[in-house]
Write a structure and sequence with these properties.
With about 60 residues, the protein is mostly beta strands. Helix content is about 10%, strand content about 20%. The chain is built from one helix and four strands, in the order ββββα. The strands form two sheets. The chain has a two-stranded antiparallel sheet with strand order 1-2. Strands 3-4 form a two-stranded antiparallel ribbon.
Length: about 60
């Protein structure tokens, strides 16, 4: 997925376009929580894995 590309109704824009080419992105959330983001097909995830941000799973299901 390239910089600024739209995936259905969800727009994912990262500050550094090079991040789109990485399998995983490690970062700290606003509250300092260590996080890892990765590009996966939602259907391939176990049911107990939450998507971020809130509402992403419902928006993807509506596509």
């Amino acid at each position: 997925m390239g910089a600024g590309r739209v995936a259905g109704p969800i727009r994912i824009r990262l500050h550094d376009a090079a991040l789109y080419d990485r399998d995983m992105i490690r970062f700290n959330a606003g509250d300092g929580t260590a996080c890892t983001a990765c590009w996966l097909a939602p259907a391939a995830l176990p049911a107990d894995v939450a998507l971020f941000p809130d509402g992403l799973a419902a928006a993807l299901a509506a596509r």
